[in-house]
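User: Hi! Is it possible to get a structure for several chains at once, not just one? Here's what I have:
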Amino acid sequence: MTTANQNAVARYKNSFLKEVEANVEDGHMVKMCMQCGVCAGSCPLGNAWEHSPQKLFMMIRAGKRDEVLKSDSMWMCTSCYNCISRCPRKLPITHIMHGLANYAYRLGIAPQGQPTQGVARMFWDNLAKTGRINELKFAIDLYFKDGLASGMQVVWNMKEDVLGLVKANRLNLLELFSAHECQDKIGIQKMLAKAREIEDRRKGFTQ
Amino acid sequence: MSKKQYAFYPGCSSQKKVSADNFLRSIDVVCDKLDVQLNEIPDWNCCGASIGYGEGGQLPRIVLSARNLALSSNQFAGQDMVSVCPACWLASRETAERLHESSSLLADTNEALKEAGLSYSGGVKARHFIEVLIEDIGWDKMQEKVVKPLGDIKFAGYVGCQTNRPFGIAGESFENPQYLDKMIEMCGAEAVPYDQKVTCCGGALAFSEPDKAQKQIRDIVESAYDHGAEMIVTPCQLCQTNVEVYQTEINRKQGTKFHMPVVYYSQLMTVAYGGTAKQAGLDGQVIKAEKLEKIAGK
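Assistant: Yes, the chains can be modeled jointly so their relative placement is included. Here is the combined structure:
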């Protein structure tokens, strides 16, 4: 168990709802759920969720801490905002799902090797470096994450599209050497580090 | 006539030689025709998109957007900050609203912004370019500029998610928004009714859960075909790329024969306004929009 997780367990004891309210984005809205299930029926990837948002909300109230935070359900969110727009109680469900996933990840107990978690990290590391996304590097990191051979296979399978994008001026191989970036990338890095430090302090990740 | 002025936040995908290079070119033409001036915010940064949630927490993501709002406020005081990308717009608008509502969040944000030599005191309105078109320019003026009606092309207007939810365009429904169809008709073409107008393309999960996302994309393209569409038109860069580029992959895996061009509303408008295929960025299609190119070439 990670220290951050041990601290959280010690601090909130049996009240997982309180823990979520204090540490998860928009967590204070969880108790507003009236269990109608519209979110579950509205999710484009609904059948890929082990537990729908509706179930997760009830599990939080029932104190099922491990079952919720270790689930890969929240990582199935495509950020389509269908659940939010349909929820009769106006719960910001998408934000709560993002918040739960991020909280579990920061506690170190989110499922290891979860693909969307990996892509999210890749995307964030990419943008945090220079302040802007380098699409070419993102594509390379993504498709070659399991090594050269499998990467080449993906590129081969998608060769028409890769060539098409290059020909269409929408994928620039020179981005490997010189890409769009912010002038004040150092300031952005410092700003993001400070934001993380403040958030860590608020959520008790640091003492 | 003086041009309407806006602070412009293009976003990572709408830069030169990246995924929506062609979109940006057509936006330039539309602005020129409609007397809109977009003033690019100097040194703007990535909004973190939706997928940023996994690694970046709430405050780091808010701070990213707050930096853009602060730069916009410093450089172009009094101007609305306009995005052409739904993800950029969503992140900026949400941040602007949250910072307006919570003084403690604003204090935390400013503590971080200080590291980049900035501060934000609120007041910037983050808007989508489509809002500018509909609310500030208006349908009549947009219609007036049409010199080359697109004739008999049938389009499936694909609004997707984040242009439509959670904020959407004022007065439109989440389930069946009308403005994109109206834009198609304004350009003199036909908008076919079909049932996947606001379906999710999978978003960033196209990269992490390809099979699940490709099922979404298949549903969208298939429904467009079934309802007689010849092209799909969208306001979103990620929708455009996902729905266009993964057709080959779906064909390869599932034996379909998809070959449906996917264009932006601004490309339709550029052609209808008399622009060339190149000005409309039609050279940027991986699946060529031949019928549209032909009209542009006439």
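Residues 150 and 189 of chain B are 5 Å apart (CA to CA). Chain B has a mean pLDDT of 97.

User: Great, thank you!
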